[in-house]
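Supplementary Methods, section 5.1.

A reviewer requested that the exact input to the structure prediction be made available. We therefore reproduce it here, unchanged from the version used in the analyses.
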Amino acid sequence: MGLNYEYMLIIKHILETGVNYAPNQEIVYRDLRRYTYSELYERVCRLANALEDLGVKKGTRVGVLEWDSNRYLECYFAIPMLGAVLHTVNIRLSPDDIRYTINHAEDELLLLNSDFLPVIESIKGELSSVKNFVIMTDQEMLENNLTDLEYENMLKKKSKKYEFPELDEKEMATLFYTSGTTGRPKGVWYSHRQLFLHTLASAVWLTGWRSSLRLKGDNEVYMPLTPMFHVHSWGYPYVATLLGLKQVYPGKYEPAKIIKLIQEERVSFSHCVPTVLQMVLDNLPPEARLDGWKVIVGGSKLPLKLAIRAKEKGITTITGYGMSETCPNVIYASLRPHMVNLPEEKKLEYAVKTGIPYPLVYARVVHEDFSNVKKDGKDMGEIVLRAPWLTNGYLKDEEKTKELWTGGWLHTGDLAVMDEEGYITVVDRLKDVIKSGGEWISSLTLENLISLHPKVKEVAVIGVPNEKWGERPMAVVVPTPGQDLTAEELKEHLMKFVEQGVINKWAIPDLYKFVTEIPKTSVGKLDKKVLRQKYRN
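The structure derived from this sequence is encoded token-by-token as follows.
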């Protein structure tokens, strides 16, 4: 063995780099707390000391149920830096699934916001591995039947110094669960090494590669609008800390509060699903603008209409693509170097495609025999991936892990096409594509086209059983408030795209259902599973 220091790619180096570079940079939580990176490090040390006193050690699973806050950021670092495992509990799952995930993860300690006391109190007797609870709150400590430990009081009593251990970079650092759209939620985990490399690649993409979202200068301010329980908030809290950016955490998502924080804290960079961006735009006063705000939109397709609407308010949007199993960033709508001087209208066309592979990512679109699709924008296949940070598999589920990694490539379950420039565009989930009379009809393409109608606020397209054709497309539509909308208007609207050769006439839905709201999954995506169950007859 050599005498040199063996540098492990572990999370503590991310935090220490950011603190050393920008010790006086700000971290803001709503209008309740404001402190520096140096103080962040001290609080992480205090939390580590407190957790150790509660019996947390190497390998201990620690569950967190919290809104997007500075406390959550502290957990992102302190828990894995101890050698323990951070389980970011999906707070939008049903109580039964929350119970299942905590037990399946074998959490020994739960840190929970007081808002979630009723849920945890209701299932306390069924939590087989949990030994201790700590309450997080912005108010006075509430009476409860779980614990008298409160996060801030606990930290005050602990030392602001802690010597974090050297860890094996391949040890488990984080764990969370998929939203369970096809059965029980599945546990997805990541090592220190995977998170470290994902952070470095994301920093390269954000600051070095060409895109309309590229971060420049000293005035960039980061605020996540993807829940911190969901795939490490797409990994960007780690990236923001490494880069020494000012960070703003909005707590529970409230449109007025989010808009106020963007304006007052001069937020320049965020990420979210389309429904959250729509929520912000719907609540933005008519005269207000959000110039300079750059937003990655992922989770589901960024509709062109939404991108145009955002642009009219000074907001720059591009598509990001990934999934729980990919950490998640793997494909983004960056511009290739020779495209930087394209007209703005053309750039917007590329911004709503799924994009090209992220740094260090290999992405293919393949047929069932693993041959590559033609680069003609029409030949469909499944996206398969290789990258240094893709999950090794599902926790305690060898069978599903083998399915995920068939042939040595991670299978996404997403159908896509590729154009002559190599840009990938997801056309549907394999489980959502509509198989009608021997042809595949893309629900995402129909949703995008229908959403361009001025009277449409939101739309989901599903396949419903049909005795003759197997399935036919059905559009579930939320009209723009105050507008009357008919199926005939939407059919006429779609015929324009038939005439342009964008879709064929066969793809036009036969059935239309007008509703006031479309159900969403726990992370804000259109919940087509619920829609298919509701309208299957």
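The chain has a mean pLDDT of 94. These observations are discussed further in the main text.
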